[in-house]
Amino acid sequence: MLRSYGRKLLLCLLAFSALAAKPKGSAKAPTCSAPxxxxxxxxxxxxxxxxxxGFFLRNGKAEAKNVVLALKLYLRACSAGFGQACTNLGQLYxxxxxxxxxxxxxxxxxxxxCGLGDxxxxxxxxxxxxxxxxxxDDVQAVKLYSRACEGGLPDACTNLGFKYAAGSGxxxxxxxxxxxxxxxxxxxxxxxxxxxxxxxxxxxGGLKADPAKAAGLYLRACxxxxxxxxxxxxxxxxxxxxxxxEDDCKAMDxxxxxxDAGDAGGCNxxxxxxxxxxxxxxxxxxxxxxxxxxxxxxxxxxATGCSNLADLYSxxxxxxxxxxxxxxxxxxxxDxxxxxxxxxxxxxxxxx
Length: 352
Fold this sequence. Notes:
- This protein is mostly helical.
- The protein has a domain at 247-342: Serine Threonine Protein Phosphatase 5, Tetratricopeptide repeat (Alpha Horseshoe).
- It contains 20 helices and no strands.
- It has helices at 7-11, 13-20, 35-43, 47-59, 67-79, 83-95, 103-115, 119-131, 138-150, 154-166, 174-186, 190-202, 211-223, 227-239, 248-260, 264-277, 287-299, 303-315, 323-335, 339-342.
- The longest helix has 14 residues, at 264-277.
- The radius of gyration is 23 Å and the shape is globular.
- The two termini are 35 Å apart.
């Protein structure tokens, strides 16, 4: 049987939203009118001007870009005690684009940026404590998110709310999570709006279940580019909850938007509707399209997408039948935490 994200992932949205946040630099627009103006002040040991000149050189027009010099200026400004420069330089090492990826170097720079009062440095450091196995520390992450939230970063409030909702690094407190999501949403965090929508969908944290309120929050977050919110809004249209009426075409459009935004659940849900579950005349059943969408979900390490794709290979439905491929996909889904997929993995013959 093909499996769809429905109520299950509506309930699990919190985890997806929190993980959607990425480290960000403190790339405030320069106050200098041009690199030359910043350069004069930088030469007079103005650390902020050095950072701003680096910002110009890294983010300006193509003909004016000089990434190597920009990195040197960030380092100079950071060494002179300008926290934003430390954070931005740390972001480059964390992502590993223009410089070789170096998580240890990123950790050092985020720590310095945070210590110098840059709240983005504190938030990014919290994400490293959450995501890096070698330094994993949820309690430390909570402390850093709290500091960044109080320092005015909406996404830090969202991630802190997730920690309270999940009871990760702090005692679970759904009411506290709701308050933090509300604060984040009001301050412009689309993640916060999406997570608050989940709380209204499920009636958590002292809220009365209100699908219409949830739909409004999901729409706000979806319009801001949050794929998981687009997917959850699609679920409401699929079920006809909190919206004008049940509408599979609208649901499929929202799942597509979610998938395009990188949400694995949106890809899987759309695949399920193309496979055998939808009733949209404009988008008829298409098993090959379903297989492509399941693969997109599976490639993002979504267990349900892997399992659904395995079903198609097992049945030869929309793809060439391939028992070995199906077995490999069931194993991947199992490794990603799908108990039902584990039951489909062939038992290895025991040696005599």
